[in-house]
Design brief:
Keywords: Coiled coil. The protein is an all-alpha fold and 104 residues long. It has two helices and no strands. The protein has two domains: 62 residues; 40 residues, no CATH class. The chain is rod-shaped and about 95 Å long. It starts with a helix and ends in a 23-residue tail after the last helix.
């Protein structure tokens, strides 16, 4: 009877060992997949941080554009005071005043 008990215990131990080994393989595959995903997320985070810095530098630059309320008036001034072939080119540094004639 002792040998039967011993053989049974060996079979149970072998079965437990196989199940534990299978679970260990499954956990190892999951850990490996999560490590890969974590590394991809780290790289993505670094890329986003660089993009954030670039955008912040763009926001910190002084705005050298004209206020939008002036742009329509300037375009009217330049389109009326410049020869037709110059319309669309860069305007002169000092805008010419728009002169209205009250005499027909």
């Amino acid at each position: 009877m002792h040998t039967i008990t011993h053989a049974f215990l060996v079979l149970v131990a072998k079965d437990v060992s196989i199940r534990i080994h299978s679970q260990l393989d499954s956990v190892e595959k999951k850990r490996s997949r999560l490590e890969q995903e974590n590394e991809e997320l780290r790289v993505r985070l670094q890329d986003l941080e660089v993009a954030k810095q670039v955008l912040q530098q763009e926001l910190d630059k002084p705005d050298l554009t004209l206020p939008t309320s002036i742009i329509p008036r300037l375009s009217l001034t330049y389109s009326l005071s410049l020869p037709r072939f110059l319309i669309g080119c860069h305007p002169p540094s000092v805008p010419k005043p728009l002169i209205y004639s009250y005499y027909g």
